Amino acid sequence: MSMIRRVFLGAAGGIFTAATLGLTTPLMAQSDPIVVAMGDIASVESLNLLIAMERAKERGVPMEMTFFNSEDVAVQAVLSGQADIGVGAPYAFIGNSGAPIRMFFRMSTLLFFPVVNSEVYSGWEDLDGQEVTVHSRGSGTEALMRLMEEKHGISYSNVSYVPGSEVRAGAMLQGTVNATIVDAGNFRLLQEQGGDKFIRLPVDDVDATDEALYANTNVLENRADEITIFVEELIRTWEDINANPAIVGELREQYNLLPDVPAELMAEAVPYYEEAVASGIYPADGGSPENVREDIAFLAAAGQVSGDPETIDPADYWTFAPLDAVR
């Protein structure tokens, strides 16, 4: 699982069975594809989403992926209509701007590893007045590091934004970064290549969304039938991977996905998903209002959003119409 990123929960055979998912009649492909914007580089971590997109395409839903250099740019692309669907968890953006975008599918839950160069730091208290590096502004990585800042009574001198867990791990190995946060695969990479030089800082258990899919409300309304088919294929793909992570390798070859990714990285695809499934980071149900309240509680504690999670309206951030349609 070296040189990649992130993970989350599920079990095969949840509410949505394979038989149920196969009932929808394929649509006639529209001329304009549904464009999915990812504020990150193409990596093995993207394979589950790319597989679901290919399966939706087989059922007549035109789709394509486009990559941006940050989640901030991706959410702006969705807001402006340059893209239709985004990847991320833009709670703070929605809360601060009132933008007409809503999340509709929970892809993964948060599992990250704050890590430091032990030759420089040994614990959270050593990061007081020091710089840390996270994925992007408003990301789960920043929220977790901000939460730890508050819990440990410290104040970072600066937070730098470097997209890509593998990029941040590489910077740790090169010595240009001494405190960051990475996924499980890249923490293992640091251990393999750095030994005791890199240590994981402890964090309390956090149940929060890492990545979700979101869209402009007009896309959700105007292309509801296609979005429903896409969600069906997301559910089916998540169930298949949770039941047998090795299927990722088979489907990657079947659809010829990420052909330009180096072979040594692609060899990590199945181990990555095996570890991800074992860690329970791919939800089987796509999300719920209770998940939204848990996310708000986490982000509020991290200082990224305001409001009482018990009184907020999940509809301010999410729409469950596509999931309800699948059910």
TrEMBL record:
GO terms for cellular component: periplasmic space. Its main location: periplasm. The keyword Signal applies. It is found in: Periplasm. Keywords: Signal. InterPro entries: SsuA/THI5 (IPR015168), TAT_signal (IPR006311). Residues 57-246 form the SsuA/THI5-like domain. The keyword Magnesium does not apply. GO terms for biological process: alkanesulfonate transmembrane transport. Belongs to the bacterial solute-binding protein SsuA/TauA family. This is NMT1/THI5 like protein. The lineage of its organism: Bacteria, Pseudomonadati, Pseudomonadota, Alphaproteobacteria, Rhodobacterales.
